[in-house]
Amino acid sequence: MDNPPELPHVEVNVTPLSDILARYSQHSFQELQTLIHTLQSKAKNDNAKKKAFLDLLVGIRQNFVRLYVLCKWARASKDIGKLIDVFVWLRGQNQKYADSIFELSTIKSSLMSAKLPDPDLTTAIEVLMTGRPQLPTHGLLSKKPLSPYLILKTLRNLNVSLSTRMALEDDLPPAFQNYKVEDGRVVFHVHKSFQASIAIADDSVDDSPFFLVDFEFSFALKDGSLIQASTPLPAVTHSKIEKLANAALAKEGLFGLYDLLHRFATTFKLYLLHRQLVAMRIGLWKGNLSHTYNAEKCFVVIKYWAKKPSSSKQKSTIEIGINKQTNDLSFRWVKDGKLITDHGISFDEFDGDEDNDDGEMINLERLIRRITKRHSELNIQQIYDDIADRIEDAEKLVSINREGGNCSIVFNLNATKTATYSLDALSGKGYFHDPTPLMTDTANSINSGEFSESSLKLLKFRLESQIQELGSMLSATGWINVDVVKLPSAEVSKLNISYAELKEPHLFSQLYSIRFFRRREWTAGWFLCVGISGFSRQVNWWCARIKSNLGQWSINWTESIKCGQNQHASLYRLEQDYDYSSLVELSRISAAKLLCHLIEEELIDKGAKIVTLDFRHPNVDKFFNNSKLKSYLPEGLQPKNEDDNSPVMFIDNNTLSQVPNCWGDLVLLVKMSSETRTMEMILLGELKQRFYAPFSGASGDVFKQDFSENTSIEVNQKELVFSIKSKVCVENNRSLSLTADLLTVLNKLTALITLLKLVGNDQTIKLLDISLSEVTFQYGKDASESISLILANKNAEDGSRMLFDMPNSNPHQFARDYLRILLAESLKVPQFVVPRVYGSSSAMSMANMPGIISPGGLNGFITYLKLTLPLSRAIQEITSKKAEFLKLFAKKASLTDDSTPPITINGIPCLMHDVFCYGSSRFRLEYIITRKSEDQKKSGKIERVKVAVDVDLRNRGSFLDANKSLFYVSSPDTTHAPTFLKELFAGTEKFEHDGKSVVALQKGAAVAYQSIHPLLLKIHDAFYEKYGTDS
């Protein structure tokens, strides 16, 4: 057996792998070199250059990976060349088969021209039978006319044959049983569908087949309606239907003909309805109607209310198609995605109507209007049913009106006002009759949302309409609407609102609204709460005190408004037929309720313990009979007055103001006048003893002072009784508290008694002047060393409610700022503590003065004034000497006189001094010495030396005490100090004043506060004796 031939070796278009590796290596090097030159350009930023470099590296790496795969594959194959040869040979064989097939198809195409034509068998048979062919004459030969006798005879024979054939038909379609035989044809008339005529070719009864002679429709489209009228077909259409009908007659007989023609007529009806819908969509129904016409499946889907939003599953449509049972046009109504079968609407509205003279069959627009009207009626009924399912006795609030052929729902807003809501049959959108802006907004909200929410939105509309009407009436009667108050549900529950008429309690928050109103004269925080519901005719009223904490509103006190002034009267509820007079009466009742509770609430908030009784209470009469306060009762306020129910409040003195010099309880009388809209308050109290000094401006033992137009105080030191009167105009009151002025005067009286008790017990202090807001006393040798403590009406800028003032010549003027700090601190602690921090940073934050001034703390402040008075005198004298020194130096510089100038070096004073205050307990005398240097290396040069003398206030206990407090005098560096100071610290120099000597402590000396004045003057003179004279 011969071996197969060798495969031809292919060397064309084959590149060695080594060449590929070498070329790509060179290519990669060239790309990198080009990119490096490009990166040197500044046209691109660094990020763009980095990205370009990374892209190049990734591309080169991918190609080298491919080359690595080729190398591995070539190394594993034994003969890569043989594989290439096999591949080339197989491709060559495949190409040869393809060429062979192409050549065979070319040969087939070329043989078509050699094919012989088909034989004319028809002509051959005609020649065989007649001897000649029947050729067309092309109208050149005249035809022999038929005689009338032959025509009539033929028609009569055809009529007989057709009658016989029809009589012999075993199964005739029901629609064809109404036929007529005339003129050689059978005419079938299908009511409101079509008319067709059939005939036979000859008078044979059995064998001759039927064929269609004529066909026309029995309906036409006129003025948007299908009417009964003959509609012939166009010639082309008639020819086509004739062929189809003859084929159906030959195959299926009359049943096949009827099915064909009936289906054709029904399809044409559907097409005419489609044309009518197209005309409607560009007319009145534009935008509200859309439809889909499917000619193949023979149906039309009409979507009405197209602009009304609805989901895909809740669309409302009218579907028109062929009924499988009747094989005629019919429709079905899908309402909101559900099929409606009991609508009672007929598709062929005028079928069998004898009054229909125009022969109208189908009016599609009237059908759509009837369906949309029925849809509107069902929706209105559904809204009413939803409302009835949600509230009790819904018929009292809503009703359905069917007058005039239109269905609408009527809401009873109040006794005289209603609102009518209807649905537009054209668009399906709801609307109100005679709409207001609120009605328009509600209708738009309903139309843009789901229908299931319509009943809830209508109840909300009823709620909002009541809110608007009641709000306008309240505004007209002087009430102010407050919109910022929003109560959480937990706070609303405090009002104990009944919603038994609501079947679905979870809707309470949506159908019940609480509005807040106030009078212009009311105190902030007091409101009239009005409860309005959308499910009831009732309006609830409360009087409440509401506060806000970080945006959270809460009810502190609430009470239903009672009718009249009797607290036990029945609840005052205004039904929905309220009028302006009832709202004015409501203003009077609510104002009385608020004022009766406001004072008591304010005092309780301040911690007072109160017992409130009426003037008619027997215990009130008993109290005043045993007290000298009875004579201070004003006219109209007397115990056992049956016509007076004004409250009397007995206030525990220890829980309100703690008046030091007061017996028992304080008595607060309240008298309200409904005519003048004012309220008068009188606070009475009994004093234990007289004051230490008479009041300035007092008339004998009686002191009277008016703090404002409506607030005054009277102190009778003979009877030891004080009374504070305050009158508040309810209509014009803008204050935050009705008792603010009254308590302000009481606090001033408390503070005054505390100051007088403190100052009056100190024999070293002399009272100069007393008033209710200021006490002036002298703590030194003359009136210049005095101070006035002032009770401020309002907090000062630094937060203190007590200020002070002193004469300009007072020695403590240099420490005025630190005294202000100490006074503020003394009001916050029971004992006065000396601050340990020096410098200006010792000024701490100051709290407001409490109701009772701490005697221990203020006593410490007064002690401080007395302790530092000698030091202040010394500083005052040293400061005045500095002024005299500078005056002499200025005279020398200007050469204006011959006075002896101070010693100078090169025009600079040899000695200067200054005083510094570091806090409330450290002071410094600083001396600046200018002299020639004693150092030989700096011979002739001028040097300046500072010597400081520090004075510290020290005490041996935690609090200031005149017997335990000393001044400590020291110096950081005594090198250049005078000899007297050095010897004083060392103990070799004795110094004594008023029998009190200085205690030497090596680095300083301790001295009593009485001796600090002469000691500092002695030290000051020692400095000037050494450096400030010619000696």
**Which whole number gives the mean pLDDT?**
78
Count of β-strands: 42
**Shape designation:** elongated
What's the helix count? 19
Q: Stretches where pLDDT falls below 50 for ≥5 residues?
A: 350-357, 563-576, 640-645, 830-855, 895-901
Q: What percentage of amino acids are in beta strands?
A: 15-25%
Question: Helix proportion of residues, in percent?
Answer: 25-40%
What structural class do you assign from the helix and strand content?
A: alpha+beta
Number of domains: 7
Tell me the radius of gyration: 60 Å
Query: Describe the biggest sheet?
Result: 7 strands, antiparallel
Terminal CA distance: 154 Å
Strand order of the largest sheet: 22-23-24-25-28-27-26
Protein name: Mediator of RNA polymerase II transcription subunit 14
GO biological process, one term: regulation of transcription by RNA polymerase II
GO molecular function: transcription coregulator activity
Keywords: Activator, Nucleus, Transcription, Transcription regulation
